[in-house]
Amino acid sequence: MGPVGLEDPYSAIARAIERYRWILTEAFILSSRLGFRFSALILAASDTTSVSLTWALTLLVTNPRVLRKAQDELDIKVGRDRHVEERDLNNLVYLQAIVKETLRTYPAVPLTVPHEATQDCTVGGYHVTAGTRVVVNLWKLQRDPRVWPNPSKFKPERFLSDGCDEGGGGGGGGEAANRDFRGQHFEYIPFGSGRRMCPGANFALQTLHMTLARLLHAFELRLPSSKDHDDDDDVEHPDEVVDMTEGSGLTMPKVTPLEVLLHPRLPLPLYEL
User: Domain of 37: which CATH number?
Assistant: First the structure.
């Protein structure tokens, strides 16, 4: 394999090398190999994390019961006299379930990278010849009603071991309590699986958990179009209040930008720099 980027004549790196060949000598390219790779990893993780964070906030503002339950957990586990720290994340079980459910309903990357069959095989009843490229539809896989009851409903409780539903009783969820996104449960693989699993998964998850935890802990979230509602109001906002249309591309962004109002919920001194 030649210098990084040159093996794919259509890549942005290859085009830059061709255009600026008088600057980008072979020695420079070879010495920058790791830099290119690390930059690609960071950019990819940042993009997918921002997409996932947008969907998580969208789902929370349209599901006030879930939002309030997450904030109650933060108040109990962290308190209101300090900010969330990394050491708190392991104790935020419901927040972890929210992230898992967000990645299930709106995976940042709806299609896996292509995989090529090395030999003739049968996949789902279809004959796949050697050399065929196979792409897995993660969005469809993670909304399969044969695996996920009521798959279109945003219900973090399905990932909790106690399986508590909206009323706090048992039996309303928990069917996915033992499933994780490390590639061992093939009905739930938002980061892919195997040796080609997303290398930036840990970075993306850590950033997503910490950012979401600090936002929910420090601020009340409101939709600009919604009226102030009572804290005991469990009525979810209808979908028409927030456009849930999904975009297309390598990632799955929200077509309409999310507009949300943030109101401080902690003592004011905590917001001082």
Answer: 1.10.630.10
Q: How many domains does the chain have?
A: 1
> Can you give the pTM of this predicted structure?
0.77
Domain contains 85: yes
CA-CA distance, 84 to 91, in Å (whole number)?
A: 11
Residue 66 placed within a domain: yes
For 91, the domain range is 32-271
Q: Which residues of 94-131 are buried (b: 16+ CB within 10 A; e: fewer)?
A: bbbbbbbbbbbbbbbbbebeeeeeeeeeeeeeeebeee
Residues in binding site: 198
Q: What is the pLDDT along the chain (273 residues), one digit of tens a residue?
A: 444 444 555 555 566 556 655 555 555 555 555 555 555 555 555 678 889 999 999 999 999 999 999 999 999 999 999 999 999 999 999 999 999 999 999 998 888 888 889 999 998 888 999 999 988 899 999 999 999 999 999 999 999 987 555 444 444 457 777 777 776 788 888 888 877 777 778 888 889 999 999 999 999 999 887 655 544 444 455 555 788 989 887 788 899 999 999 999 999 999 986
Is 9 inside a domain boundary? no
* Run of H or E residues at 98: helix 93-105
Write the DSSP symbol of residue 144: -
Known binding positions for heme:
198
Whether 213 maps to a domain, the answer reads: yes
